[in-house]
Amino acid sequence: MLLDRAATLATKINTYQKLKNSAAEAEQFGTRARQFETASLLMARLRETLTVLAEAGVRVDFQPSDGLGYAEKARTLREAIKADPAKVNDPPFDIKHAFTDRLNSIASAGHKAASAAWKTYVDKRAAFGADDVLSALGQVPQFRVSVAKIRQIRSEVATFGASLPPDPKAAIASLDTLVSQHEAAWNTLAASDIPSSVVAFIRAAANSEALLSAYTSEVETWLESRNLLGAFRIKLR
Fold it and tell me: Which helix (H) or strand (E) holds 219?
C-alpha cells in the first residue's frame, strides 16, 4: 500500500515537473513572439509610410544602417528555427540586443526621417515671402482684410508640417488648394485710393519678384509717408 502511494506520488511529481518545464518553455516562446511581433509591426508601418510618401512625390533621405546584415540575421534565424524550433530559445545570436532592438531603432530612425522630409516639403510650399512685408501691410487700413486672409492661409499651411498625414496625397491636394488661395489673395490685393504702381510693387516684393526699376519715386514717397520703407530690403538674385 505504501509503495503504491509512493509510486503515485512520484508520477504526480514527474507530471508536475514536466508541466512546469513546459510552462517555462511556453513563456519563453511567448516572449520571443512578442519581440518579433513588435519589430515586425514597426517595420511594416515604416515601409508603408515610406511607400505612401514616395508615391506622393515626397523624397525621404533614409538608408537603414546595415539593413542587409539584419536581413541575413533574419534568414539565419528562420532556417535555424525551421530545423529545430527549440532554437528560438537558443538562437545563434542575441535576439533582443543584436536583432529586435536594432530593428526597432531602425524603424524609429526611419519615422523621424520621414517626418523631417514631410516638414521640409511643407516648409518649401509655405515659402510665401517675408512676414515683415505682410506686417507692414497690416498697418494700412485698406489692406487689413486681405492681410488677415493671407495670414489665415499661411497658418493653415504651416499646420500641415506638424505631423505626418495618414494620406500624403490628400494632404498635398489640400496644400495645393491653399497655395492657390494664397496666390489669389495676393493678386487681388488692391485699394482704390492707393496708386496702382504701389500695389504692383508690394505684390511683387512680397513674392521676392520686385525689380529695382519698379521702385519709382511715387512708390518711395507713398511708402515713406507711411513709415513702411524699413519693411523692404534689396537683394541680389
Answer: helix 217-225
Q: CB atoms < 10 A from the CB of 88, how many?
A: 18
pLDDT tens readout for residues 79-129: 776 777 666 666 777 777 777 788 888 888 999 999 999 999 999 888 887
- CA separation for the pair 68, 73 (Å, rounded): 9
Exposed, middle or buried: residue 143 (CB in 10 Å: 0-12, 13-18, 19+)?
A: buried
Q: Are 118 and 168 in contact (CB under 8 A)?
A: yes
SS3 content of the chain, % helix, strand, coil (to 5): 75, 0, 25
Q: What percent of the chain has pLDDT over 90?
A: 19
Residue type, 116: A
